[in-house]
Input
Amino acid sequence: MPTTILYNETDTVVDGAQVDGADLWLGLDDLARASGWRLKPEGACLGDVCVPIPAARRERFVRGESGTDPRFNLAELARLLEMPVLHDDATQTWCFVENAGARSQRMASLEAPDFTLPDLTGKMHSLTDYRGQKIFMVAWASW
Amino acid sequence: MWQALYDELHHLGFTVITVALDTGGADAARAFIERAKPAHPSLIDRRHAVADLYQFVNVPNAVWIDEQGTIVRLAHAPAATAAMANMIGLGADDYLNAVRDWAVHGADSRFVPAPDQRRALQHEPDGDDVIAALNFRLGEYLVEHGAAVAARPYLDEAVRLRPGSWAYRRQAWALFEPPEKNGTLWYAATVQHPVLPDEPYYAPVHLEGDAAPIDPAEAARKQRQLFESTFGRAFAKRDDPSV
Output
C-alpha cells in the first residue's frame, strides 16, 4: 500500500516507504518531495536552516547511508523538533503539523499568512494576489 | 451580504474575500455562491486551512488585512445584520460603520488597534489546539479521499480537544449526522446542554470608543436567550437528543 504524507500544507503519496511502528523511513528523494527536508553533511536541512543529527543516535535518523538506498526517518526528526505527528495505520496516512511554539511565533508577527485556494471555477487565488488592497476576509459555511 | 459592502467600498482600494470552510467543497458551497453572484473572490476551503491560519472558530468569522499584508483586526464575528450585531454586543450599523471607517481612513482609522493591542487579544494556540488541528487535518484528508468511516474518530477527537471550535463541531455534524438532525444537535449544544456554558457562541466585539466590553458570560447568557426565543420551537425536542 502506498504511504500518504500530509506535511503542513503539502500532501504527497510515496511508494516503498518503510513503516516500522512509529518510524517512517523514506528514501531521500521522497523525503524532499514530501517535506522539503534534505540530508546534508550539516544535518537535516530545510532551505537554509539545518538541524544537526544527534551523533549518539544517528542510526535512529539515517540508515543505509553508504548503500544504494539510504533512508531517513521523518518521524524521528519530527519528534526531535517536537512537531505533532499522527498516523492512521489502516490507510497508511501520516500527518505532521507545526507545533504551538512555531505557531505562536508566526502569529506574533501579525503577518497575514498566505494561502492558495480555488474558487468555484477551480481557478486558484492566493492572498498575495490581493496585496495592495485592504482585505476584509470572512469565513462562512453551508452548515 | 458582503457583496453590498464590496460594491460600496471597492473604489477605496478595499476588497472582500469570502472563504467557505466546507469539507463538502464546491458542491456544498455552489448554490449559495451562485445565488450571491459575487464580484469579489469567493473561495472554497475544504481543509479549513484558513480557519487554522487565522484562528477562526465559527462562521461567520472575519479578519481585516491591510495593504501591506498585516492583520489589523484579528479573528472576530462580523455583523452585517442587526440581529448579528445584537449578538456581538453592538448597535445595528456599528460594525459596518467601523469597516467603512477603515476603508476610508486606513491605518489612521480609530478601529485599527495598535499592534501590541492586537497581540494582547490574540488567541494563543495551546497544545490541545494543535493536536486538534492535527486530527482535523488527517480526518479531513480521509473524508476527501472517500474514507469517511476511517476519518470519523479523528474528526471527533478534534472536536473533543478543541471544544471552543464550533467550526470543527458543526463540520463533523454536517459530515456524519443526518441533515435533519443538525438543527436539534446545534440547539442541544448551544441552549439545552451548553457545551461551553460560560463562553458565548460568538465572542463579543469591542469597538474602540465603546463603553467597556461586555462580559463573556453575560454575552453567553444573552445569546442563549436569543437562540431559545428564535429557534426553540423549531429545534427543542421533548426527548433529550444528546442521549
Summary: Chain B has two domains: 2-121, 127-235. Strands of chain B lie at 14-21, 42-45, 61-65, 71-76. Chain B has a mean pLDDT of 92.
